[in-house]
Design a protein that fits this description.
Elements: H1 2-9, E1 15-19, H2 22-34, E2 41-45, H3 48-55, E3 59-64, H4 74-80, E4 81-94, H5 99-111, E5 116-128, E6 131-140
Parallel strand pairs: 1-2, 3-4
Antiparallel strand pairs: 4-6, 5-6
Length: 141
């Protein structure tokens, strides 16, 4: 659903979606067929660690919507993100500890010799009474 939303509500020239799950990927293809304004979307099935480097692209914006284990993919994302690009990193955090998600991003950004220009943390929903899904929107040099 994310590539469809980006296509509908942005002026993105090109949108790339990667899905490892075969069934989820087939639903993505079906969504492309069932919707309009999808000619700027390319969907790939496979592991993002293999698919994205093979495309030899760099991106203005990267969305990492899977909070569980996303930190493992952050170095790859940073290597593919253009200068002054935007990263949308999702994470799980306890109530009152949302900034820890931003600290995770900042630590990996520094380890990869990049510069964090700005970051904002947004609560996106809860998964239990005291645990939330949050998104770090970060601009990275």
């Amino acid at each position: 659903p994310i590539p469809l939303m980006l296509s509908r509500y942005s002026q993105a020239e090109s949108i790339v979606g990667v899905e490892k799950n075969k069934i989820a990927h087939s639903y993505g293809i079906k969504n492309l067929d069932d919707n309009t304004k999808t000619d700027n979307i390319s969907l790939y099935r496979g592991d993002v660690r293999e698919v994205l480097p093979s495309l030899q692209n760099r991106f203005d914006r990267l969305v990492m919507p899977l909070p569980s284990g996303a930190i493992e993919y952050l170095p790859l994302a940073l290597s593919l993100l253009k200068q002054k690009g935007w990263l949308h990193f999702y994470d799980f955090q306890k109530k009152g500890e949302f900034m820890q998600a931003a600290e995770k991003v900042e630590k990996v950004v520094l380890q990869n010799r990049r510069i964090l220009l700005s970051s904002f943390v947004h609560k996106c929903g809860h998964i239990s009474p005291f645990k939330y899904r949050v998104c770090v929107d970060a601009q990275i040099q």
